[in-house]
Amino acid sequence: MKKLLSGIVSALVLVVMAATLACAEIPAGPLKIGVVMPTTGPIAYDGRLTLNGIEMAVDEINNAGGIKGNKVELLVEDSANVPATAVAAMEKLVGMQNVIAVIGDFGSSCTLAMMDVAQRTQTPLITPISLAPKITEMGNKWMFRGCDNSTMIAKAFTKWAVDDKGAKKWAYIAINTDYGRGSVDAFNIELEKHGGEVVFTEYFNQGETDYYPIVTKLKTAGADALCLFGETVDLSRVVSQLHEMGLGGKILVMDPTSGTFNEKFLELTKEKANGIVGASRFVASIPTPAAKKFTEDYRARYDMDPEKYAQAGYDCAKMIAQAIDTANSTDREAVRSALAAIQYEGPQGKATFDANNQLQISEYIVMAQDGQIVVVAGPISGE
Length: 383
Known about the structure:
By secondary structure, the chain is an alpha/beta fold. The chain has helices at residues 2-24, 44-63, 83-96, 108-121, 150-164, 178-193, 212-218, 232-244, 263-269, 289-302, 308-327, 332-340, and strands at residues 31-37, 72-78, 101-104, 125-127, 143-145, 169-175, 197-204, 225-229, 252-254, 277-280, 344-346, 349-353, 359-360, 362-369, 372-381.
């Protein structure tokens, strides 16, 4: 009887394995991965940094033999940071190009708009940058965030800023997008927990050039700390005009989501960047072997240090490739399942997804100092 049962079990196992291999086999040919990223428009520079990391990762994968002998092919579409354009790009990649998965977008508003397409077409979508908390709070199992979010950053950074730096009265200057508004909301919750208060909040439109009216009002707000939410070029103008209006060095400037911690911002603002503090999951000075190797390779390729946009693009591409390899399939559901269960380790450290497909990682407290981004504390958990 035992032998009979054993034989039946063995037969069933073989049937299951055969069925699995039959549906999981990767067909010969290029493995298409889509990318939706702003390569034109007001945040094209930041989008290009992210694309740098994605392209570097794919070249590394292909140079090492690809995925089970198949090369990865990137298909890149420009969203220009416009939600409608991002949706059209996603539709094209999924419907016409038949990609396995999509990396995108940069801005939270674009990613939120693309999520419906991902769910309807059952295509894994992973954002390397978008921070709006609701992206991974809406129950869309096809949506992944390959980075931290505003709530995680707020938990890690706010306690440090209030308790260690004595920043009690906060002012916000934030971009008027889902990312900016969502970040202000997330930080206000944590600020109240730690006994701080908000004394000033102003929003600006992307591509704004004149921040003098906002800075003029800020001067009378009584803030001892200014929290910025935005991207490279916009925030360089804010900081420059802050100094022109005499507030440089008189208020703690904070950039918790790291729109300023890259070489372009340091080039635009020079010494005005000194003393800006924030949180980041990655900077080039993180003293770990994986971070050092990534930084060296990136510098050799692009003649500049990587920052979190490049790192996130790199890691998202590597995670999708690992998921395809693990699933041994181009089937989107198989890849999605493998991505959800991934155990990944890259330049930012070890990372996994929670039940909401939110990447779980820690933060470093960083500071701009004489043209460099230095780590001053961390890693700090944002859980």
